[in-house]
Amino acid sequence: MDLIIDGKPTSLEFNGTVLNLLRKLKISSEIVVVKRNGQIIPENETVADNDKVEIMRVIFGG
User: Fold this and answer.
1) What's the confidence (pLDDT) of residue 42?
2) Cβ distance 30 to 55 under 8 Å?
3) CA dihedral in degrees (22, 26, 28, 32; nearest 10)?
4) How deeply is 18 buried, as exposed, middle or buried, from its count of CB atoms within 10 A (0-12, 13-18, 19+)?
5) Which of 16, 17, 34, 61 could serve as a FRET partner for 40 with CA atoms 20 to 30 Å apart?
6) pLDDT tens digits for the chain (62 residues)?
7) Could you tell me if residue 32 is left (phi over 0), alpha (psi between -120 and 50 degrees) or otherwise beta?
8) In CATH, what is the architecture of 2-57?
9) Do residues 41 and 25 touch, judged by C-beta distance below 8 A?
């Protein structure tokens, strides 16, 4: 799959849920938003090698 993490493109072979992908990458699901092919998706959705996945960290503060 084409994978973008915080604006940095990379490539990864993976088929499974968003939650499992985040675990594999050691990224907490509580601090990111995940888009598949331009659409925000929940962590129980499945992603596959033919998807374009973007992982964006959520910034908190005030």
Assistant:
1) 97
2) no
3) -60
4) buried
5) 61
6) 899 999 999 999 999 999 999 999 999 999 999 999 999 999 999 999 999 999 999 987 76
7) beta
8) Roll (3.10)
9) no
